[in-house]
Amino acid sequence: MVSMLFMVWMLVKDMLRPGVLLFSVVVLLMTTGVLTPEEALSGFSNKCMITVALLFLVSEGVRRTDCLGVVMRRIFPSKEHNCIMTVVTAFSAFLNNTPIVVIFIPHIKAWAKRMGLPIKKFLIPLSYAAILGGMCTLIGTSTNLVVHGLMLESGMEGFAMFEFAKIGGPIAIAGIAYIVLFGNRRLPGDDSEADEQMLDQGGNSDEECGPMCPAWKRWLALGLLVMMIVGATIGDMETVRQTIPGQQLDMFFWACVVAVIMLFTGIIPPKRYTKFISWDILITIASALAISEAMAKSGLADWVARGLIGISSCFSPIVILALLFIVTNIVTELITNNAAAAFAFPIAVSVSQQLGVSPMPFIMAICIAASCSFSSPIGYQTNMIVQSIGGYKFRDFLRVGLPLNIIALLLSII
Q1: Entry pTM
Q2: In the Cβ-directed half-sphere of 309, how many Cα atoms lie within 13 Å?
Q3: What digits encode the pLDDT tens for the residues 300-328?
Q4: Which whole-number Å values give the CA distances from 357 to 316, 318, 348, 354, in the listed order?
């Protein structure tokens, strides 16, 4: 309990990078005997953690070839930024959110300048659109993959590719509608000096990226991306599992295949591939998995679950579900989305066991809640990117994002 509170306090204070801090907590738990060395290191061999690493490479291949550039150049002549949000949401459902935001920032910057529109009206919506899209599929955000990995380790079946779309889809639609109709009015206007600096601060491409890329690489990257998405979707079908019983054609399989092809064809420089992986995120995920195991093993998760049930003992399980969503959402606003998901997972399982109900609604709720980092720039990397580039203040995220958090809560428990 003390180590968990210490971790949250350090994350809120931003005194260390999340990966360093969470790994330090894992070492502390191992030295005090809460975790064995094998349990402490188990997250580093987790299939879903390695899948996240592979998806970083795939996203980099897509970025370097600019294979999505044709689509972006077709939509940016329009002044309707709801069209931009829709496209970003669709892309981020299948690619890592951070590269998507980095890809779009220079295009949005140039487009806003050409149209004479304030750039600050578009960067927070860009981050929110990426987050909303990530909630719609298993691979859209690392949070979903982290929880999926925890489910597999707990002996559960895990999520299908588009299972999140049942809840994430309506939230994404409602979120885009809110930003277009109301949220845009709550965003700040531009500071002309900051506006001049934005392009230099974010979204720059290197010398091997963009229109200079050979056309065959661009089409190959696009084809590989489609193959990965379709392959992982079909591989989840029961008929395919029965047809090929000895092989799992899941996202890990297809991400491996696509990443290796991109490396051998030069879409990704094979001698520099380590540059394109965010190691801090991977260490955060691996450490968060170990911390989640420690919470379950030490009884902390059961203690928190009993507290939630005790507070809402006179109410239905829906009230407990709402409380779990709110707690997870507050935690993700203060720390990181992956750490929040790992923190909440054993609590969700314990709550469902003590109530004698299926754990799936509770697990789905924490996935959505951990991803809904709209009210602060701290909990989600894309928010931190647009905050640094756009010069937003903390209150800007709170003014625009808090109503979106409430919309996500209501749609998740209905």
Answers
A1: 0.73
A2: 16
A3: 767 777 777 777 666 778 888 998 999 89
A4: 12, 12, 11, 8
d(CA 308, CA 284): 27
Torsion of CA 104, 109, 111, 113, to 10 degrees: 180
Residue 256 has pLDDT above 50, yes or no: yes
CB 147 within 8 A of CB 366: yes
Quick one: CA dihedral 207, 213, 217, 218, positive or negative? positive
Please enumerate in sequence order all residues whose Cβ is within 8 A of that of 171, keeping only pairs 6 or more positions apart, or say none: 132, 135, 368, 372, 407, 408, 411, 412
Asked if 91 and 133 touch (Cβ cutoff 8 Å), the reply is yes
CA distances from 58 to 107, 209, 221, 382 (A): 21, 14, 9, 18
Sequence-distant (6+) residues with CB within 8 A of 67 are 218, 219, 221, 222, 225
**375 within 8 A of 401, measured Cβ to Cβ:** yes
pLDDT, tens digit, 9 for 90 and up, residues 36-79: 999 888 888 888 788 888 888 888 888 888 776 666 666 665 55
Write the single-letter amino acid at 197.
Q
Burial class (CB in 10 A: 0-12, 13-18, 19+), 275: exposed
Tell me how far apart the alpha carbons of residues 26 and 369 are, in angstroms, rounded to a whole number.
24
What does each C-alpha distance from 335 to 135, 338, 371, 379, 387 come to in angstroms?
18, 9, 12, 5, 16
Highest mean pLDDT among 75-79, 128-132, 178-182, 304-308: 128-132
Name the region of 118 (left: φ>0; alpha: ψ -120 to 50; beta: rest): beta
> How far apart (Å, rounded) are the C-alpha atoms in residues 348 and 364?
9
Per the listing, tokens 């496209």 go with 87
Query: How would you label 59-91 residue by residue, b for 16+ Cβ within 10 Å and e otherwise?
Result: bbbbbbbbbbbeebeebbeeeebbebbbbbbeb
384 and 343 in contact (C-beta within 8 Å)? Answer: no
Q: What is the signed CA dihedral for 48, 52, 58, 60, rounded to 10 degrees?
A: -170
What does DSSP assign to residue 245? T
pLDDT digits (tens, 9 = 90+) for 186-239: 888 655 444 454 444 444 444 445 557 788 888 898 899 889 888 887 887 777
Helix axes 192-201, 381-390, angle to 10 degrees: 130
Nearest to 389 by CA among 111, 147, 104, 130: 104
Is the pLDDT at 263 greater than 90, yes or no?
yes
